[in-house]
């Protein structure tokens, strides 16, 4: 692959980010799961006090470069390390650009950001059926954390639990 260029997303990237989010949902076999709107993305990534961030990956640093991928991340915290961690929420590279180094470049960009911010770890989750992603993560030295099970409250269950007395 030609040299990729990665930069922090800006508010004008909201339609592009939204496009990538929907493409990721299709890839993950959940095309109807995206309920966020472009306005939600703008508010949560670019409003004052936003805690999530995004980067955009281009196929080169040329003026007419094509956006080929993105990542969304935020900082979490480890009490045991006494440090923040960088948590990768989403990473997506257009299907026709996969296998050329863009995903690795995005991961390295975020790993460098984690090191710069003195994060104690860089974490993410992957769907258990996504063998290409799992193989990729193994190839960069990432290790699964099999002893942890992710739990989630959302939708009605979250609302009902929050309202319990």
Q: What do you see in this structure?
A:
The chain is of the alpha+beta class. It is built from five helices and five strands. A hairpin with a 4-residue loop joins strand 3 and strand 4. The longest helix is centred in the middle third of the chain and has 15 residues.
Helix content range of the residues, please?
Answer: 25-40%
| Largest sheet properties | 5 strands, mixed
Strand order within the widest beta sheet: 1-2-3-4-5
Shape: globular
| Rounded Rg | 17 Å
Low-confidence stretches: none
* H/E topology pattern: EHHEEEHEHH
Overall pLDDT confidence: 95
Q: In percent terms, what proportion of residues is strand?
A: 15-25%
Give the beta-strand count: 5
The number of distinct helices, counting runs of at least 4 residues, comes to 5
Distance between the termini: 57 Å
Work out the oligomeric state of the chains in this entry: single chain
Give me the secondary-structure category.
alpha+beta
Keywords, please?
alpha+beta, 5 helices, 5 strands, about 160 residues, globular, single chain, about 20% strand, about 35% helix
Draw up the topology in text:
Blueprint: E1 5-8, H1 14-27, H2 38-46, E2 52-58, E3 67-78, E4 83-93, H3 102-116, E5 122-123, H4 131-139, H5 155-163
Parallel strand pairs: 4-5
Antiparallel strand pairs: 1-2, 2-3, 3-4
Helix pairs in contact: 1-2
Q: What is this structure, in a nutshell?
A:
By secondary structure, the protein is α+β, with helices and mostly antiparallel strands. It contains 5 helices and 5 strands; from the N terminus they run E-H-H-E-E-E-H-E-H-H.
């Amino acid at each position: 692959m030609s040299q990729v260029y990665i930069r922090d997303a800006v508010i004008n990237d909201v339609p592009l980010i939204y496009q990538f989010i929907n493409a990721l949902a299709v890839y993950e076999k959940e095309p109807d799961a995206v309920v966020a709107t472009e306005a939600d993305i703008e508010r949560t990534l670019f409003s004052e006090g936003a805690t999530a961030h995004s980067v955009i990956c281009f196929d080169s640093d040329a003026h007419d470069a094509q956006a080929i991928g993105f990542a969304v991340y935020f900082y979490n915290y480890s009490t045991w390390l006494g440090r923040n961690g960088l948590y990768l929420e989403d990473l997506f590279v257009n299907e026709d650009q996969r296998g050329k180094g863009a995903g690795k470049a995005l991961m390295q960009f975020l790993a460098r950001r984690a090191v710069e911010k003195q994060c104690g770890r860089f974490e993410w989750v992957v769907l258990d059926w996504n063998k290409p992603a799992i193989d990729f993560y193994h190839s960069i030295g990432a290790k699964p954390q099999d002893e942890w099970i992710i739990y989630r409250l959302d939708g009605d269950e979250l609302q009902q639990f929050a309202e319990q007395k």
